[in-house]
Amino acid sequence: MKSRLLRFASLFLLSLVLVTACNGTTIVTSRPEQPPLEVGYNLWPGLFPIAIAQEKEFFTAQGVKVKPVYIQNFLESVSEFTAGQYDGVAITVGSLMSIIGKNPDVQIAMATDESSGSDSIVVRPDVKSVADLKGKRLGVRLGDGELFVSQMLQKHGLTTDDVTLVNVEGEAVPARFKSGDIQAGHTWEPYLSEVTKSGGRVLFTSKDTPGLISTVIVFRTSVVRDRPQDIQAFIRAWFQAQDYWKANPEESKALIAKTLSIKPEEVSTEGVKLYTLKDNLKAFTPGSTTESLYHTAKLYSDFYIRTGGLSTAPDIQKLINPSFVQPLQAGS
């Protein structure tokens, strides 16, 4: 009798283990597959690594699905992000400050580059110096490029009150310049070459304002919260693409031209300083120069508050998120 009871108990326990095991397999579910990380970018040399990473499948190699959304026009890409499209977007710090009122829940995850001569103030041949701009019409995207223009004028004893600022996108400067509507304008390549070919000349460049015009990748705070590993993988792939470009310049030039439907000769980083990991580590460290994003963001924030573009200063400590580039330091 005792033997039968022991056998029964053993069978009962075995059955219980099997049921538990079976139940265990039914309740364990794999993590649902994440949709591709959508990142908007535009025709700017500092952003070309995203095209390389896409074509060479570096994103996949780093463990993230990415859907780069290429829009030639910078303002259009920013507008679509502002309207709720994309998980992230490439944007200048100045433009970010101009939309922060509508999109406060964003965070800077990495810095891609700074304009180091590409952004220029171009003028008609009769304008020989900055002083000659007095009374002239100067085309600039109000807000975003206004601080750049303001610093140029201040360096030569003028203020924005001495000129007539006309709200013109950099892409539209060549046509407005040619029509005579403006006598000077803020633009960049490839539009800069269009102006110089039509008789304009460069008066002032971003070489004189290092770090002021920098481009960053921002993600919505919800994406930062829910998909930090994907953002980390995106950044690793970015630097992998940047290294590949450096090691294989001709192949990369052809690849970029094909992906973006531009001519190979238009693929140039002249006047643009691509940010390495080392540059990013500096940028994500608080400082008192424009090497630091904290300082640059504060300059724009103060400017927008002063000119009425912002009613409340953003929390820069929350806006800038160093947690994505700092862990890469060990491999730098």
UniProtKB/TrEMBL annotation:
It is found in: Periplasm. Keywords: Signal. The keyword Ribonucleoprotein does not apply. It comes from the Bacteria. The keyword Signal applies. Residues 1-21 form the signal peptide. Belongs to the bacterial solute-binding protein SsuA/TauA family. This is ABC transporter substrate-binding protein. It comes from Funiculus sociatus GB2-A5.
